[in-house]
Amino acid sequence: MLTDCRLVLQSRVPRNVSVVDTSNSVLDRRYDLPIAIAPTAYQKLAGGDGEIDIGRAASALGTNFALPTNATTSVEDAAVAFPTRDEKYPKP
């Protein structure tokens, strides 16, 4: 049993973090944000329309959103609420 344990994390390589750029490029398309918003369950508990709000925000930012398996919004409601995409993307 550890009763008096200390853990110190120390960076061995100093980095300049005064300017952080989270953008990236995938298939010659530039994204200001990471390329997808990861699924997080029970988003309506945080307020608003939950997954529908997050999906609309992701669409407005030009990034992807994955509907979680433990969503507070049904797949059918999400499919109606989200903007339509090009035909090359699969439909839910």
Automatic annotation (TrEMBL):
Q: Name one Pfam family in it.
A: FMN_dh
Write down the required cofactor(s).
Answer: FMN
Q: InterPro entries from the xrefs?
A: Aldolase_TIM, FMN-dep_DH
Q: What domain of life does the native source organism fall in?
A: Eukaryota
The FMN-dependent dehydrogenase domain, residue ranges: 7-80
Chain ranges passing through the membrane: none
Q: Which named protein is this?
A: FMN-dependent dehydrogenase domain-containing protein
Organism, as annotated: Aureobasidium pullulans
